[in-house]
Amino acid sequence: MAGKLTFTMIKPDAFAEGNSGAILKIIEEAGFAVKAMKLTKLSPAKAGGFYAVHKERPFFNDLVNYMSSGPIVAIVLEKDNAVSDFRKLIGATNPAEAAEGTIRKLYAKSIEANAIHGSDSDENALIEASYFFSELERY
Ligand code: CMP
């Protein structure tokens, strides 16, 4: 059965441009409940750890630099079918391919500065939430 939790980050480009409130409104109106949320700034080491699965990819260094370039908002969300419903809401990684009305279509600038992250599996949702929040049992 699909899990109820997913993890997201509002990325540095979207936060810096003042789009966090508009993005959170879309998320809440889609039926997701905020279970934990914090504004934080990733060190390069912490950004690299979060994206360790991509460390052999050619874009890894740029991704780490970008993700540690300014504040991000880390959020744990709850909803039935959270992971897949959230990935539909945010749209394709590349905003040029994102469907109309998705968060990335509305707010992403490029495949790297793509406004928002969404976990790709229930297992990763828990791993990623635990990377930022220690009290998972309270969710
Ligand atoms: P995200 O869904 O957070 O997961 C990996 C991130 O790597 C992705 O969003 C993009 O921000 C970034 N990225 C940069 N270049 C690429 C690329 N060519 N393909 C996939 N992801 C990329």
Fold and architecture overview:
This protein is an alpha+beta fold. The chain has one domain: 2-Layer Sandwich (Alpha-Beta Plaits). The chain has 7 helices and 4 strands; from the N terminus they run E-H-H-E-H-H-E-H-H-E-H. A 4-stranded antiparallel β-sheet has the order 2-3-1-4. The longest helix is centred in the last third of the chain and has 11 residues, at 122-132. Adenosine-3',5'-cyclic-monophosphate is lined by residues 54, 59, 63, 93, 111-112, 114, 117. Adenosine-3',5'-cyclic-monophosphate binds at residues 54, 59, 63, 93, 111-112, 114, 117.
Task: Please name the defining characteristics of this protein.
alpha+beta, single chain, 139 residues, 7 helices, 17% strand, Alpha-Beta Plaits, binds adenosine-3',5'-cyclic-monophosphate
